[in-house]
Write a structure and sequence with these properties.
The structure holds 2 protein chains of 2 kinds. Chain A is of the alpha+beta class. Helix content of chain A is 27%, strand content 31%. Chain A has 13 helices and 20 strands. In chain A, the strands form 5 sheets. In chain A, strands 15-16-17-18-19-20 form a 6-stranded antiparallel beta barrel. In chain A, strands 5-6-1-7-8 form a 5-stranded mixed beta sheet. Chain A has a 4-stranded antiparallel beta sheet with strand order 9-12-10-11, with helices on both faces. In chain A, β2 and β3 form a beta hairpin. Chain A starts with a strand and ends with a strand. Helix content of chain B is 21%, strand content 27%. Chain B contains 5 helices and 10 strands, in the order βαβαβαβαβαβββββ. Chain B is globular and about 50 Å long. The relative contact order of chain B is 0.21. The chains are: A alpha+beta, B alpha/beta. Chains A and B meet through α13, β13, β15, β17 and β18 of A and α1, β3, α3, β4 and α4 of B. β15 (415-427) of chain A pairs antiparallel with β3 (67-68) of chain B, so a sheet runs across the interface.
Amino acid sequence: MHRRTLGRTYGPPPEGPFALVERGPHGIVLVSLDAAARAAGLRSGQRHADARAMVPGLATAAADRAADLAALGRLAHWCLRWSPGVAVDACGTGLDGVFVEVAGSAHLFGGEAGLLADMRARCGAAGIAVRLGLADTPGAAWGAARFGNAAVTLVPEGGIRAAAAAWPLAALRLDPLTLARAARLGFRTVADLDGMPRGGLARRFRDGDGLGLVRRLDQLFGVEGEALDTVAPAARHAARAVFGEPVIDMAGVAAHLPGLLDRLAADLAAGGLGAGALALTGFRIDGGTTGLDVRLGKASRDTRVWARLLETRGLDRLDLGFGIDALLLAAPHVEPLAATQLDHGAAAAAGEPLNDLIDRLAARLGGEAIRVARPRARWLPERAEHWLTAQGAPPPAALLPGLTSEPATAPRPLLLLDPPEPVEATAMVPDGAPVQFRWRRIMRRVARAEGPERLAPEWWRETGRRVPRRTRDYYRVEADDGARYWLFREGLYGWEDAGRPPTWWLHGLFA
Amino acid sequence: MSVASPRPCSTADLPGDFPAACALLEEAVAAQPANRAASLAFACLRCDPARALLIVVPAGQAREFGRPSLHGLGWSGEVLMAMPRGEADALWVMEQGLKSAALGGVIGIVEGATLTQTRRLDFAARGGATPAILLRARGDGLSAAWRRWRIAACPSAANPDDPLAPGAARLHATLVRQRGGPPGDWLLDLDAAGGVAVATRLAADGASPDTGPDLRATA
């Protein structure tokens, strides 16, 4: 299996000797340099003091690795336009490369040479200085991008050994220690190592992390495979549209969207699949991406549903920047979906739109804001039901065995206050029903009361609580104005009142 | 005196001229903050219990209003709760719910809906033939609702088992205003199974009071 991969580097536009610096274990060192600084003889990893001695006018700024990583991640997402397999280069000295797996997508751009030309042109238009390398293995592409003779290096198929012979050992992605040791032994180029007996090399260059010289050599020549950690899961089902002229307004996007939706739906229908999620990505001409994703509670390949969900999610709020020149609609999550008849029977019509409604509401408000209630086998009233996010919630029939949504033995209030609100209550006898209580600053006189309903704390779950929960005595009381309340006294007199007198709480309102 | 009828109640089961069928858009105003549960119970009565119910509670009001309880509602269909960030989103959610044919009713706690916004809801409800009930704390202001109710909890009926305990919940439903009809005044008894019955038709619109005692004096 041949894998042709491409490594790329980019840097800031050159303007004067400039370097990013970082505080190292032995003082401040240079991290990355612009062309002028490199031309002046400076190099990455050099001490800042030494560099200032060589180039007194060197301008510096503190390196921000997190920002670099974020920027590289954005660039990597932008590179998804060429292939679904894109990875940030984690093995280089700096955060400066992106791997693009183009094994199956080069033909879309007129072959490998056409693909490289397209990359160079688009990156140039976006103001990104790049060096491109294309080869059979990630290792060779990495080396070609950095040590190839031209800014664009295409290593022909099977030509790694010839192309890499003259590359320095740094092209092997080695750690500095190994590199220094190899230099001490007189190895200068890849060709020097290529003819050496492998056993001896492996013994001499044993690295702690296992990524030894021999392994890198094998990865370079494709003897050993190398997995890339892609930035986005490669969606097997996707539809893309590339535009000749950048689209700068939503009308243009809206015009292209139905075609994309139809193509993706046809792709999924051919496999008997439905999309459980959709991701729309727009590739901006300035090297960024814009996008939105929606989740569906139930897999679907109904393009009308998709279109409405994308619109609800905020299609009109996409940041197009100076325009986008490609759109990618992917279904990152698919589920088997048998073909169904449309509009057949009232039952199907009544069951289906509820899911659609939930998806539509969740697309705008967020999935957390739409909830459905399911009973739970718990003792405390506030835990006896669970408000699950409605998307993907189990159907009501799939309850725990033996658990129904029937009310418990005693009536339960229509509205629960969660958490319960403290009230000041007065009772005739300490463990009796209240005769009056003050809730939200208003004194309410109790006309009639029923209770107590005693609910013990769930002691079998209370392990590790510093202050143990106490028994609750619930009373259903009716105030003299007719309103009905659910009050409880926490703590039993004589049992649980040591140090903490029992307290009264309002937990709910009855109709 | 009250005879419980299983839901859904039909006009035939209820004495008097209580409008049991919900108009497209109605408003229920709780007479006191403590009567919110009563107004929610009344709103649930107006919806189709065999189908899903959507309750829209803006996130800022959830703590104040309380959380609808599944066991307390006793709803046989699915209960959806939407917690949008603001009232504009809440109205949008209600509108979407009304337009979809999946729901048996939409109950929204939206205080500041304007006449235009309620008209939008009315149109949406007309399209999907789903009833919508707005729960509000204040009964003033213009609205396109077909009926405006004022709901108060009343001292309950006598409990047959225990004279000191509250009995079946009793609501005082005042039809403050309705389009194309006279106002009215009813006492409704809710039974434990979720049924409703009209206990007494109170005096309204100048007609003579029915035979039942006028509980407004004692309530």
